[in-house]
# Entry
Amino acid sequence: MVNSNVKIFGIVLFIVLAGIGYFASNAQIKEDPPLKTIDFGYQPLWTGPANINEVMRKDRVLTEELRKLGYEIKWRPFLKGADVNVALQARGEEGLEFGIGGDMPTTTIIANLDVEVFSLIEGGRVWIVSKNYDNVSQLKGKKVGFAFGSNAHYFLLKTLEQNKISEKEITLVQLDVPSMPQALENNEIDAFSAWEPTPTLAIKNFPSLKRINNGRSSGYLYAKGEFSRTNPEAIKHIIASQIRAIKYIQKSQENLDRVSGWAIEAGTALKGSSLGLTVEEYNKIVSDGLPGSVYIEDKYYVDGGILNEEFDLLKSLGKVPLSATWNEARVKIKREIVKEVLSDPKKYRLEESPV
# Structure
């Protein structure tokens, strides 16, 4: 009789414990729902922003803060800002929530889509490189390589206008950036317009090539308007990560070397072959292109400023809809969000090391 009671007690205890385990496991599932994904389009072959993004990709603070909000980032590499913008327009798994782009991709996307711009991510150089010609005025009637919709595309259009050369007076040859140096060396084109590191790589690999014109470009961090308006804290933590990344890069030579190494690896992976630059060579380009501040200053933002001038030129050339206005586009530049992040360094953990 005693043995029978013991057996019954054992069976009951097993059932109770199994039930507790079942409910506990279900409770655990409810406590840890799957993280939602933020798809972020970045450009490993854009020196400066590539370094910033490599730190952001490894930023433990960003990972922690987004996890609290139920998010994680999926980093997706692209060759140029125009490609990022195409993905921003896509829906479902092919679409992006976040991206970076140069001045022309930024200007065109705020003229056409519900996208909000938050911060400055680059202030580097764009170059026109040639082999047989010494100045832009000699390019009339020649073939010039460019990446459609990029900051270098805008720089080329602006430089042609300054030299009183219309688009119709040259042959524009659309190329992916990595293929431009070889095309120029092979005389398939007479010049190309590109951002770093392509001009430096071109001249290193082909000593017959030379820089014939240059200018400053700017680059920006932006997101779909719908995502921005419904996830303001996620936006701020991503901006905070950008700020931490720049601080980390600028803190020491050791940090700069480490991050440039990461960027070279990422660029090589996207290109499919060696980038061909040493860390020291890469560092020189990075130091010239990092923004002093991520805040979008008046010189870019105001009426008559850099982005307004670019908007008007692109509109006159048919790259921006005739119905679009600068005032409508400018309200999509939410530069004050950077000030909100900077005003609360403790909340946004701006002084912590990202890696």
Summary: The mean pLDDT is 91. The longest strand covers residues 115-122. The first helix runs from residue 2 to 31. The chain has two domains: 36-121+221-342, 126-216.
